[in-house]
Amino acid sequence: MKKLILLIGLFFSAISFGQNFIGQDITISNYIEGTLLIPNSKTSTVAIIIPGSGPNDRDGNQNFMKNNALKYLAEDLTSEGIATFRYDKRALTMLKKGASEKQIKQVTFDDFVSDAIKVVNYLKDTKHYTNIYIIGHSQGSLVGMLAATENVNGFISISGPGKSIDQVILEQIAMMGANDLVESAKKTFEVLKSGETDKNFNPGLANIFNLDVQPFIRSWMKYSPSEELKKLSIPTLLINGDNDIQVSPKDAELLKKGKPNSEIVIIPHMNHVLKTVESKDQQENAKTYNMPQLKNTPELAKVICTFIK
Hints:
Strand content: 15-25%
CATH class of the largest domain: Alpha Beta
Largest sheet: 9 strands, mixed
Number of strands: 9
Number of domains: 2
Helix content: 40-55%
Radius of gyration: 19 Å
Distance between the termini: 35 Å
């Protein structure tokens, strides 16, 4: 199987991006398709960029949300001499290859981790990078922590939640002032923790606890980011924007409690999709989620380059 993966990886297309770097579109497995950006200057260092929740492609985009956040991050880093690899989420790759809805709904959180580990091993064994860093954005932060094996030299979390997904969901429901739904959600989470499916969940929570979604939630909620971060012995950088309306800088502080020797940087005016937003207005903030021409906050790549180099 390993030989097959390596052979698949040899089939790629090369794309020129001008003077600073070139790009190679690479297929690592049936589930992993991405783009490797290689700087013109020789380097042994590569950063793997793992996307957040939802059907994100390698650029950080979805059907109705295009901001190119991860594309710009990759280009900014490679322009500074660091190779980067970013890839489409597994479900998106499956969809492009004609997988059924049933097959896609069988994907678990652990599948994301497995994919990330395969990327690490491919870049080490096939591309011969000796300094490998993982950059996880949002949900990808937890994926990256779990994938940071002995072949990884450093870990970078961008807008990574500090609590397990069940705690995050309970807090979001509580913010709506729906105390009855909070109690109902707690009961469903207890059922999921027991390994069962809750067929009698509160109908008011159908958008969260649909029966075909519950297995994925169960596979995700068993991990506490702050607890998982404790297990890492490699250098770690925690980044958040102070204008992030999805993941608060408090989450970065919570992660740091799990690993006190982590570096932490709160970037002024940066939001969840890595853009500069001067206003605290949520409507203005949300507009940037669909502004694909808007570049990332310049400070982000500077902070990461300083950490890696």
